[in-house]
Structure formats: structure tokens, C-alpha cells
């Protein structure tokens, strides 16, 4: 038997706010808090569901829960979003009523998750089949695609929808889904170019860089490092609990399921990459000859890569960023753009490119998921749109979002009242008018075709002359100053009211949810949403398959000089279409509330929830529902629930359910003014009456429970006694059986022992007889064996004697034949005997020589020059060749042990030998010293952190050198850095770069033949680096520096071979003078060190101590 349940069973707080008593804002918030603390996140207001975001996973969305709410009455179980989804689906399937589910709430309240739960429930309870499952999967998989391109991380929500979405799901007459149509509203495209602090750009940018393969990123000319893209904020690039790489794979899979072709996916990714590249384009000012300023692109690499991705000529797009063409009938005027205008054009292109791509995605998804049949469909709409927004600074976006919410509130009140009125009329209950706040006056203030704010904003944007936000605000002050829901500083002053909380550049509107202060700055630009025609035409010229579809207005053959519709006009038209669509459907409401701003579970902030309750109009909703009858219920469940309160209806009522309820109410003496009888339902006016019935039912249930317990306990005790009695009989029977079994076992055991003794005696007797017979047989066998052995031995001796005789004859014959052969061969042997003996002797000597080498071979060290002496002179050539081959093989084995780093060191040493051996006296002392390269450990030493960051390339050598002053010959300490492309000199104390010389500007290096560390870097005449002249330097690691310079210059593709000049006299160019540097040997004054002294303006003399 099915157990009947109700919303009122085991209720925590009040499950339906219509029954809340007393009703006040404080009791409303307290009831929400009480239920939230007990993990009850859903609460009803009549048929409206309030959903609290728990910020954690709860075990209330399992397949078992789906089955629990399937085909159940709305008020039969505790409040749940599944109950609303089931009610809407069954009304659509069984009553042929088109449905719409309106989900509202502010960012972070859980609207997107609520829409997913509704869609997943409908997908779970509708029909099955291959084609139906395919449609359901496509509908569900459209969500990840739209979330990737339309959702972003905000300070309030890690997965905030930055667009409004309305999806019509179409069903056939059986209730199976056929397809769907998605409409999007107001994508927040400004987020593409700029994000508030603590927020991210749209998810797809981070998912692409994190999850795409290296090959894909290479094709898209992208790098995984977020910091390389100006449009991506870095302070919130990584989000806890959000795996961008895994989500990218999910999105790719979802696009494949929805029906995107591989080339379409690649085109979409190319446009996303192009937006990132677009953000890296920067401009610099440039003055023209006529005194006007124009902009130029700083680095054209990103522009080039973007043009390659989109198939656009670079010069065309570059011109579109620098010039703007204005057409008026037959006249064209081209003006240059300054830097700020160029940045505006760049950002406008990025926003338009992304928003049009998003609209194309929605259209493409609609093509895949639309119903294939043309028969009439049943429709269920799901609306997931922004909630009312009140920020510290509210602009154009908040204005039109709040306008949309005003329209939704208007239709909500109208449809709720209409639904109440229809139910009263249907049930035959007298309808009384309900007073409520009608926000039509606010909607008219915004959308009136003549004096509405949107109309005036469009008029300002379209009129000639200077148009600014101030002129727009002046117009509002002129026309709307007397409106009771409009306030501004000027309108206040005209009424002699001073309001310092209202700035001069702002206006305030009294919405149904409260007063909102809007800053007029940016209203005109955001409403215009202009994209220069030059950029549209440049985009249309692209060879990319998708770009031409996104910018049809760029077609030169279809030039339209008419100004495009404004953003406000388009949104107003979209909202109007949406409202007309919703008017034709039966509404179902989900109001989403977030409990705190910290995105944390178990935290309930009263002030925040109260703010949302106010602007969602929930208290107004409760008052509308309670204005007539607070509770209504069908007669059957009402009688089933309360029949135990009356003796006449308990336990079974045989007549009609309505008569039973009437008898029940009369027996309970409920005042007649507290309820009314409808055709199929009873209506209860006051919640107190309902709670009184519930209290009586609870008391009655306790009495019934006591009675049931009494009967049950008596039955249980009697059963226990009967069980004991039965058990005693069973135990006695088992004991008697056990005693008889023991007696039988003893008799059986005695019989077995007697039998075993008898059988043993018989067996032993038989064994003795068998053993005697066996011994007789063995004796006969032994005698026969001995006799047969004697006969066999005799025969063997006879056969052996016969064989010996035959062998003797064969041996004598063999010896005779050998003698005859030797006599014949002797006369031929004497002629060739000497040569054969010689060849044998030589072979034996060589064999002995080679085997002896095995034990006398020297060690495997390449520098071991020992080699065993040759034993015979005729082996001289072989001995030498073997030594050479062994040495080469030994060197090869030694080289095979080298790592790549060791090879590079030996190659540098080898090159140093080729340059300096027998040419520079300092070279022999450097042979034993390893080439270290980075003597300063510049990448690890924090002292040189600034210098390391200033040098972009890998440092091949870092050392401290002395820069020689031509004026006095004294040295100044400098840090010498060598990279693949340049030589850098930096200050040793501060780490500041003094000079950077590209390697192609070096022509030669001059050093002396002596043991000093002086060298001169000679620069190419006319180069930018040669302005201050050549460099005369001194270093303790001269051999290594010159060798690395020579190797680096030789490997560079754009530089010539670096010449090394070794001479004791060479010329050095100091600015405009050439100075001769001369090296002499002598006894310097400063002990055993090299000294440099200026002799005259044309001579520097370097004294090098004489080596011992």
C-alpha cells in the first residue's frame, strides 16, 4: 500500500511561505535561515520555488530523488526544484499547456545550476530511445559550450553567466523531446577588453591556453603563459576547483556531440586566438607635418600573426587602425586616428568580433538542436537571466538589466494574479480584487516611445552636433524631472531639496526593488556601440571562412549609410519579444538567493539575503498569494490526511470526498468564515486554521501511536511466549534424539571392534599363505636366471675371440697399404718440403706474436705512449700499423664516454689551442684551467637580479673585467656579459647596463703575444655602437673570453667571422682619436703585476713582467 505524504510532514520551519505566521520580513528571513541551517535549500511561495545556493554538493539530486518526485503532486513531498520541474513537465505532457520556467537571481545565486537541474530532470523522466537520447544529449551538451564562451569568474561567482539565455525545448505529443531553440540576451562584451579587479575574462581563453595541445597552440601562434596577453587578467587567472584543461576537453567533446564539424571548431579557436592577439597590439603617437597627431603600431608582430590567422592583408588592417572614413551620400572624408581613438577602435573590434562569434555559436547550436519535424510541438521554455543588480557604481549595463527585471516583475505579478483569479473562478470561489504595487509606471518611464529614458538616449545618439553624457543628463532633467520615480541633482535643486548623496553626473530611479543610482558617464558610447566602417570592411576582406559571415555590413557592394540600431533599441526589442513569448505560456518561477558573498557553505548573511528578498519582490509575492485564501487542497488528500480527527470519517469514509470533508469540518467546529468549498478543493483562509488542524492531527497521531504500541506490545509478548513454548518442545525432542544417538553409537562402536579383530586374523592367515607361494616362485626364477647367464657368457667369449681375429687381419692389411703409399710418396716430398716448413714456421711465429700482444697490450689511457717491442724485424710494418689502429680505437672509446657538456668544453679548448698555441705566452697556463663561463653565477646571485632581468638572452659568459681609461691607463671594474647576439658591459656595484654591443658590430679582437690579460674589442665603423670608440679591457680569463667570442661569432647567422689579431702593437679607436697600445717586457713598479701607463696622446704603454 502506498504511503501518502505531504509538504507538512516533518517540516523544518515552514516549507511554504504562504503559511508563515506571523508574516514579516524578519520572520521570512528567520525561516529561510532555519531551513538553510538544516540543509533545506528549497522553500515554496505557493507554486514559486525559492532556491538557496548551498555552495557545496548535497545528496538531494540523485537518480533516486528523481524517481521519488516523478509523477507526484506538487505539495506531496518536501520543497524541491524537481517538484516544480515535474509539475511543469506533466502539465505540458498531459494538459497540452506550453510551459516556461523563469529563473532569476543575482550573480552567484545558482541560476545556471538551477537551469541544469531542470533540464537534467526533464531528460531523466521523458521517453527513451536512440533518437530521443541523441536529442537529449545535444540539448544537455549545449550548456558546456555556452558556458565556456559566455561565463566568467567574478568576485561573486566562479562560473557567472555573463549573458541571458532563454531555451525553448520542443516536445512531441508523447512528451519526448524533439529539439530546442536558444535565444541569448546582452552578452557582457566589455569583459573581453577589461575585467574588474579579482575577476577573469571569459572561460574559453584560459581553457584554450591550458588545455590545447602544443601542436594546436603552435598552429594558433599562442603561448601557454597568460601574462603574455593584455586582455587576460593575471590576479585571478587560476581559480580553485576549476580545471581549465579538463574543461577544454569537455567543451571540445560537447561541440562534437552538438554537431560542430572539425573545421568549424578550428575556425572558432582561430577567432578566439585572434582576439587575444588583438589585445597585444599597442600604438604610439606620431606627429604629422600639418601638426595633427596620428597613431602608429609599435610592434607589428602580433598584428602580422593575427592577420595570418584570419587571412587579412596586414596593410589593410593597419590602415583601418590609423584612419577613419566617414561617408555622407556622395562625399567621403578620411581622418586620422590619434592613440586613444586607435585603442578605442581596437577594443571595439575585439568586442564586436567576440560578441558576433558568440551569436554565431548560438545560431549554429540552434541549427543542430532544432526539431526536424514540422508538426505542432509542445514547448517548455527555460529562462536563465541576470537578476536585479545594485552595485556601488551602476552604468548602462545595470540600467538595461534592471529594466529587463522590471518587465519580468511586471509579468510575474500579472501572471500570478491571473493564475489566482482563474483558479478561484474555476473552483467557484468569489474573486476579490487584490491591491498590489504595479510597476508599469516604472517600465513606462524607461521604455515610453516618446519620453522614455531609452527613447531619449537613442535621440541623443542620433542627433547631429556635440553629443555627450552631460547633454543626455540635461535632457533627462528637462523631461523626467517631475516623474515621481526619477531623481537627479538638478530636479532636487528645482524643488529646493539638497541631496548630497546624489552627484551632479548621476540620476536615480525608484525601482520596485529599491532606489538605484546610475552614473550617466558612458551611457552614450555604450548605447552607440560603434564599430568603424573601415574595420568592418577590413574584416570582410578576410579569406577566413567565418569572418565574412560575422561582418556582412563590410561588403562594399552593400554599403548601408543608415546608422545601425543602438544597443538599447535592440535590447528593448528583444525584451519585448521575450515578454510576448512568456505571455503565451504557463509560468513557473524559481527565485535564486545566495546566502553570503564569500562563496562558502554554512554561512548565512542576514543583510545580504534581506537585500535579495526585497529586490526579488518575495514579500510582495507572499502577500498576493495570501490576499485571498492562504491554503488550498483537493478533497481526497485533505480527507485522507485529517480523517482520523472525526469518528464518522475514521477509519474509512464510504461516500464522496467532499461530503466527508464537510462532515469533518462540522465535527471540528471550524468557523465557516475560515474556509470555503470549491468544486474540487477546499480553501482555507488563515494559516492559523491550518496549523490548528495540523496540531490536532499530530495529537491524534500520538494517541493512535500509543494504541498501536499497546496492541503491538501485547502481540509481541504473546508471540514471545508461544515461541518459548515451541522452543521447549523442540529442545526436549532434540535431547531425546541426542541420548538415543549416543547409545546407538556405543553399540555400533563395540560391534566394529569385534569385526575388526576377526577380519585381522583372517587377513594375517591369508598373508602367510601368499608369502609362501611367492618364495617358491622366486626360487625357480633365480635358478633359471643363473643358468641363462652361464649360457650368455659362453656365447660372448666365443664372439669376442672371433672379433679379435678379424681385427688383426684388418690391422695387418692397413699397415701394408700404408707402407706401399709411403714408398710411392717419398720420391715427390723432397722437392716441396723446404717451402712448406718455412710457411709453417712463419705462421707459427705470427700466431705466437699476436697471442703475446694480448698480455702485453698497454692501458686504455689515450696519453699512454708505451707499446711492446717487436720480436722480429720482418714484423716492423705490422707492429707500427697495429699501434696506430689501437691508439685510434682507444681514443674513440674514450670520446664515447663524453657528455654533450664535456664535448663542448673540449671543443672550446681545442679552438683555444688553434688560436693561441705558440702565439700567446699566457696560453700554456690556461690549458689546465677549465672554462667555467658564468663566474658570477648571475642567475642565482640576488645581487645581480636586476641585471639578469635586463638581459633577455642566455648568458654564455659572465666575468669582472677592467675597462682601461685612455686618459691615465687605469682600469675601472665592469661586469662583462656575453650572449648569443651581443656583448654587455655593466656597472659592478649597481648592475646597471652601461653598454650593449651587438656581435655583428664587432670586427676584430686584438691581443698581445705576452702573458698579460689585455684585449681590445674593435667595432665596425659607422655602426651605432662605435660612437664612443673601441674598448680596451683586461681580464684574468682572457683565453676563455676570446675563445667564446670567436665561437659565438662563428655560429651567428648574421655576423662575419671574428678576426683575432695577435701583436705587441695595435691601434685602438677612442672616440675621434686612434691610440697605439704597445706591450714591453720589464720590471714593473707594483710587484709582479701588469701596469698600463700613458706616454702621450697617441701611445699607451703596457709593461709586462718577464716570465721566469
From TrEMBL:
Domain Myosin motor: where? 12-698
What GO terms describe the biological role, i.e. biological process, of this protein? actin filament organization; actin filament-based movement; endocytosis
Q: Per the database record, which ranges form the TH1 domain?
A: 920-1106
**Keywords assigned by UniProt?**
Actin-binding, ATP-binding, Calmodulin-binding, Isopeptide bond, Motor protein, Myosin, Nucleotide-binding, Phosphoprotein, Repeat, Ubl conjugation
Q: Does the keyword Oxidoreductase apply?
A: no
Database matches in InterPro entries: IQ_motif_EF-hand-BS, Kinesin_motor_dom_sf, Myosin_head_motor_dom-like, Myosin_TH1, MYSc_Myo1, P-loop_NTPase
Where do the annotations place ATP binding?
A: 105-112
* Chief location category: cytoplasm
CDD domains linked to this entry: IQCD (cd23767), MYSc_Myo1 (cd01378)
One example of the protein's molecular function in GO is: actin filament binding
* Highest taxon listed in the record's lineage: Eukaryota
Q: Name one GO cellular component term.
A: myosin complex
Localization annotation? Cytoplasm, Cell cortex
| Renumbered residue ranges of the record's region Actin-binding | 575-597
Q: What does this protein do?
A: Motor protein that may participate in process critical to neuronal development and function such as cell migration, neurite outgrowth and vesicular transport.
The UniProt similarity line reads:
Belongs to the TRAFAC class myosin-kinesin ATPase superfamily. Myosin family.
Name of the featured protein:
Unconventional myosin-Ib
Look up and give the organism this protein is from. Answer: Zoarces viviparus
Provide the organism lineage as a comma list: Eukaryota, Metazoa, Chordata, Craniata, Vertebrata
Amino acid at each position: 500500500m502506498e504511503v501518502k505524504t505531504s509538504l507538512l510532514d516533518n517540516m523544518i520551519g515552514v516549507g511554504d511561505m504562504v503559511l508563515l505566521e506571523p508574516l514579516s520580513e524578519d520572520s521570512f528571513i528567520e525561516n529561510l535561515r532555519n531551513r538553510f541551517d538544516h540543509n533545506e535549500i528549497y522553500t515554496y511561495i505557493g507554486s514559486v520555488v525559492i532556491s538557496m545556493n548551498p555552495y557545496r554538493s548535497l545528496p538531494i539530486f540523485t537518480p533516486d530523488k528523481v524517481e521519488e518526485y516523478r509523477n507526484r503532486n506538487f505539495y506531496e513531498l518536501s520543497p524541491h526544484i524537481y517538484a516544480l520541474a515535474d509539475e511543469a513537465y506533466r502539465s505540458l505532457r498531459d494538459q497540452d499547456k506550453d510551459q516556461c520556467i523563469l529563473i532569476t537571481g543575482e550573480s552567484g545565486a545558482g541560476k545556471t545550476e538551477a537551469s541544469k537541474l531542470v533540464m537534467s530532470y526533464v531528460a531523466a523522466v521523458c521517453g527513451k530511445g536512440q533518437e530521443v537520447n541523441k536529442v537529449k544529449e545535444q540539448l544537455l551538451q549545449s550548456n558546456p559550450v555556452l558556458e565556456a564562451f559566455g561565463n566568467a569568474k567574478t568576485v561573486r561567482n566562479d562560473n557567472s553567466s555573463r549573458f541571458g539565455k532563454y531555451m525553448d525545448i520542443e516536445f512531441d505529443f508523447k512528451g519526448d523531446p524533439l529539439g530546442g531553440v536558444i535565444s541569448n540576451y546582452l552578452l557582457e562584451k566589455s569583459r573581453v577588453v577589461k575585467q574588474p579587479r579579482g575577476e577573469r575574462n571569459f572561460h574559453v581563453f584560459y581553457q584554450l591556453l591550458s588545455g590545447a595541445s602544443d601542436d594546436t597552440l603552435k598552429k594558433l601562434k599562442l603561448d601557454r603563459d597568460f601574462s603574455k596577453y593584455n586582455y587576460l587578467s593575471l590576479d585571478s587567472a587560476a581559480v580553485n576547483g576549476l580545471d581549465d584543461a579538463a574543461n577544454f576537453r569537455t567543451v571540445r567533446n560537447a561541440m562534437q556531440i552538438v554537431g560542430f564539424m572539425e573545421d568549424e571548431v578550428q575556425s572558432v579557436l582561430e577567432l578566439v586566438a585572434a582576439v587575444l592577439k588583438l589585445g597585444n597590439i599597442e600604438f604610439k603617437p606620431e606627429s604629422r607635418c600639418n601638426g595633427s597627431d596620428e597613431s602608429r603600431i609599435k610592434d607589428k608582430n602580433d598584428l602580422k600573426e593575427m592577420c595570418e590567422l584570419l587571412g587579412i592583408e596586414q596593410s589593410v588592417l593597419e590602415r583601418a587602425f590609423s584612419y577613419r572614413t566617414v561617408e555622407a551620400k556622395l562625399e567621403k572624408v578620411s581622418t586620422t586616428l590619434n592613440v586613444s581613438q586607435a585603442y578605442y577602435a581596437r577594443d571595439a573590434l575585439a568586442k564586436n568580433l567576440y560578441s558576433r562569434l558568440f551569436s554565431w555559436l548560438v545560431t549554429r547550436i540552434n541549427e543542430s538542436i532544432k526539431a526536424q519535424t514540422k508538426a505542432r510541438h509542445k514547448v517548455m521554455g527555460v529562462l536563465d537571466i541576470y537578476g536585479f543588480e545594485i552595485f556601488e557604481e551602476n552604468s548602462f549595463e545595470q540600467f538595461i538589466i534592471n529594466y529587463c527585471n522590471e518587465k519580468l516583475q511586471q509579468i510575474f505579478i500579472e501572471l500570478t494574479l491571473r493564475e489566482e483569479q482563474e483558479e478561484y473562478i474555476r473552483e467557484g470561489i468569489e474573486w476579490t480584487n487584490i491591491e498590489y504595487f504595479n510597476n508599469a509606471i516604472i517600465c513606462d518611464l524607461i521604455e515610453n516611445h516618446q519620453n522614455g529614458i531609452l527613447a531619449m538616449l537613442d535621440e541623443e545618439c542620433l542627433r547631429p552636433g556635440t553629443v555627450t553624457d552631460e547633454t543626455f543628463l540635461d535632457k533627462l532633467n528637462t523631461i523626467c524631472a517631475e516623474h515621481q520615480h526619477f531623481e537627479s541633482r538638478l530636479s532636487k535643486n528645482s524643488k529646493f531639496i539638497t541631496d548630497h548623496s546624489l552627484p551632479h553626473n548621476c540620476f536615480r530611479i525608484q525601482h520596485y526593488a529599491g532606489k538605484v543610482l546610475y552614473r550617466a558617464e558612458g551611457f552614450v558610447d555604450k548605447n552607440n556601440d560603434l564599430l568603424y566602417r573601415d574595420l568592418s570592411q577590413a574584416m570582410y576582406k578576410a579569406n577566413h571562412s567565418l569572418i565574412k559571415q560575422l561582418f556582412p555590413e563590410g561588403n562594399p557592394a552593400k554599403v548601408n549609410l543608415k546608422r545601425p540600431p543602438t544597443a538599447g533599441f535592440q535590447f528593448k526589442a528583444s525584451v519585448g519579444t521575450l515578454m510576448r513569448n512568456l505571455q503565451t505560456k504557463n509560468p513557473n518561477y524559481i527565485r535564486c538567493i545566495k546566502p553570503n558573498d564569500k562563496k562558502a557553505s554554512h554561512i548565512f548573511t542576514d543583510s545580504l539575503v534581506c537585500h535579495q528578498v526585497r529586490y526579488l519582490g518575495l514579500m510582495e509575492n507572499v502577500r498576493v498569494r495570501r490576499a485571498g485564501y492562504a491554503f488550498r487542497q483537493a478533497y481526497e488528500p485533505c480527507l485522507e490526511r485529517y480523517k482520523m480527527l472525526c469518528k464518522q470519517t475514521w477509519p474509512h469514509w464510504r461516500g464522496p470526498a467532499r461530503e466527508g470533508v464537510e462532515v469533518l469540518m462540522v465535527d471540528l467546529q471550524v468557523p465557516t468564515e475560515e474556509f470555503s468549498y470549491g468544486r474540487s478543493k477546499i480553501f482555507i483562509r488563515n494559516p492559523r486554521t491550518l496549523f490548528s488542524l495540523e496540531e490536532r492531527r499530530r495529537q491524534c497521531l500520538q494517541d493512535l501511536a500509543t494504541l498501536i504500541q499497546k496492541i503491538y506490545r501485547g502481540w509481541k509478548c504473546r508471540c514471545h511466549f508461544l515461541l518459548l513454548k515451541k522452543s521447549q518442545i523442540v529442545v526436549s525432542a532434540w535431547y531425546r534424539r541426542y541420548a538415543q544417538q549416543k547409545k546407538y553409537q556405543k553399540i555400533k562402536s563395540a560391534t566394529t571392534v569385534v569385526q575388526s579383530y576377526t577380519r585381522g586374523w583372517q587377513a594375517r592367515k591369508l598373508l602367510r599363505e601368499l608369502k609362501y607361494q611367492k618364495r617358491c616362485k622366486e626360487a625357480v626364477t633365480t635358478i633359471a636366471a643363473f643358468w641363462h647367464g652361464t649360457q650368455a657368457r659362453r656365447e660372448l667369449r666365443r664372439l669376442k675371440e672371433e672379433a679379435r681375429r678379424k681385427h688383426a687381419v684388418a690391422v695387418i692389411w692397413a699397415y701394408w697399404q700404408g707402407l706401399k703409399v709411403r714408398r710411392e710418396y717419398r720420391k715427390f716430398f723432397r722437392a716441396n718440403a723446404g717451402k712448406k716448413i718455412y710457411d709453417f714456421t712463419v705462421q707459427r711465429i705470427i700466431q705466437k706474436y699476436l697471442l703475446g700482444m694480448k698480455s702485453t697490450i698497454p692501458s686504455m689511457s689515450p696519453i699512454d705512449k708505451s707499446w711492446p717491442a717487436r720480436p722480429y724485424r720482418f714484423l716492423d710494418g705490422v707492429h707500427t700499423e697495429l699501434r696506430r689502429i689501437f691508439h685510434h680505437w682507444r681514443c674513440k672509446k674514450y670520446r664515447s664516454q663524453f657528455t654533450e657538456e664535456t664535448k663542448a668544453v673540449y671543443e672550446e679548448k681545442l679552438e683555444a689551442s688553434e688560436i693561441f698555441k705558440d702565439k700567446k705566452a699566457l696560453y700554456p697556463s690556461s690549458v689546465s684551467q677549465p672554462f667555467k663561463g658564468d663566474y658570477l653565477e648571475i642567475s642565482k646571485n640576488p645581487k645581480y637580479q636586476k641585471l639578469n632581468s635586463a638581459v633577455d638572452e642566455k648568458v654564455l659568459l659572465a666575468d669582472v673585467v677592467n675597462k682601461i681609461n685612455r686618459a691615465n691607463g687605469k682600469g675601472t671594474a665592469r661586469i662583462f656579459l656575453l650572449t648569443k647576439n651581443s656583448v654587455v658591459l655593466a656597472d659592478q656595484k649597481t648592475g646597471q647596463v652601461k653598454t650593449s654591443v651587438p656581435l655583428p658590430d664587432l670586427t676584430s679582437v686584438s691581443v698581445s703575444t705576452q702573458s698579460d690579460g689585455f684585449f681590445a674589442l674593435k667595432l665596425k665603423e659607422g655602426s651605432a655602437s662605435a660612437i664612443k670608440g673601441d674598448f680596451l679591457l683586461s681580464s684574468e680569463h682572457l683565453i676563455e673570453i676570446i675563445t667564446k667570442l670567436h665561437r659565438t661569432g662563428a655560429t651567428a647567422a648574421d655576423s662575419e667571422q671574428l678576426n683575432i689579431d695577435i701583436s705587441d702593437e695595435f691601434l685602438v679607436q677612442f672616440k675621434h682619436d686612434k691610440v697605439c697600445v704597445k706591450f714591453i717586457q720589464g720590471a714593473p713598479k707594483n710587484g709582479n703585476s701588469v701596469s698600463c701607463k700613458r706616454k702621450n696622446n697617441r701611445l699607451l704603454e703596457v709593461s709586462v713582467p718577464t716570465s721566469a
